[in-house]
Amino acid sequence: MRLALYGGVSTLLATAVIVEAFRQRSNFYTACIYLAKSSACMLIILNAGIFISIMLGRLLQAVFFGQLRPIEVEHLYEKSWYAVTETCLAMTIFRDEFDIQFVIVFTTLLFLKIFHWLCQDRVEYMEQTPAVPANFHARMISLMSALLVIDCRLASRAISTIMVKGPNMMIMFGFEYAILTSTIVSTIGKYTLNVIESRMDEPWESKSIFVFYLDLVTDFFKLITYMVFFAIICNFYGLPLHIIRDVYVTFRSFIQKCRDLYRYRRATRNMNELYPDATEEDLQRTSDSTCIICREDMHIRATEGDPQAGGQSEPEPVRGRNSDIPKKLPCGHIFHFGCLRSWLERQQSCPTCRRSVLPEGLYYNHIFRS
């Protein structure tokens, strides 16, 4: 109701201003000059343009996303507020170039950012949905392809403008479109991984590590982009205070991911040697033989020639089917091999007692042996 009222008032005012301009001026050219020279008229027309952008966004939302989930609406409000605040701070650097073109380019940027955020939320939602309809894939593929093309074109246009006219406000927008390009490429990569997993009969255990590497590469590209932008702004305009936080957050995220990768590689290297197979006595010693990660019971799978098999032994588990083998951590807790590997991709500590899965003594011995 409020949007309809806002749209009606905005459209009425814009129509009145344009009609009055053409009534007082003899031809189209002079009427346009009058509208462009009047600050009040331009504000009214720009306000109507914002309303048209909102309606266009709602139409595209209905086409590509349908009804938004409450969490998606919440994310939009949070990210939009931050994006507007950040751009207002950036305007202090380019305050001499603030004009109608700046407002139009900024509105376009915010418009595109909203659809990038929605794409990210929908791709994450795919992981929580057992099956998605075919029209969902058609919508996502078409939208992500369009966003990738638009991002690349606008980033290229901004760079061309800077090369021809020298440093100007397009530095900021070129940088923003470069970040959006990396974001949509990462989203497309995660969507592809989700589609591959959905077509597998069993859970894809290696998927999370591919997602991790994808996030690591994306953060590295963003960090390089931020550093280049920071250096250019410092060289031509002075210290950009508004970008310091983004540089720090991206740098910290990249370092944390590198640290997590190192810990993960260290924890999963030679898992059969670091974490021995649990025995029947180990399972009996525990109060509960349930793997707390997947909440399923753990059983010892006998191999051929095992006297404990009682003549009904199973063959040695083949590669890809050993995910249910119980593995014993140095702290004594037991988990499925596949569950443990998936857990170590996120944390390198025991899910039960939070102790490190790689004792320091064992780690140093491993280094000396290698």
From TrEMBL:
Task: Identify the keywords attached in UniProt to this record, alphabetized.
Answer: Endoplasmic reticulum, Membrane, Metal-binding, Transferase, Transmembrane, Transmembrane helix, Ubl conjugation pathway, Zinc, Zinc-finger
Q: Which domain of life is it from?
A: Eukaryota
Q: Which residues form a coiled coil?
A: none
In residue numbers, the region (Disordered) covers 303-322
**Transmembrane domains' residue ranges:** 37-60, 100-118, 168-189, 223-244
Q: Which reaction does it catalyse?
A: S-ubiquitinyl-[E2 ubiquitin-conjugating enzyme]-L-cysteine + [acceptor protein]-L-lysine = [E2 ubiquitin-conjugating enzyme]-L-cysteine + N(6)-ubiquitinyl-[acceptor protein]-L-lysine
**What is the recorded name of this protein?**
RING-type E3 ubiquitin transferase
EC number(s) of the enzyme?
Answer: 2.3.2.27
Family named by the database record: Belongs to the HRD1 family.
Q: Kindly indicate whether the keyword Lipid biosynthesis belongs to this entry.
A: no
Q: How does it sit in the membrane?
A: Multi-pass membrane protein
Q: Spell out the Gene3D superfamilies in the cross-references.
A: Zinc/RING finger domain, C3HC4 (zinc finger)
Indicate where this protein is primarily found.
endoplasmic reticulum
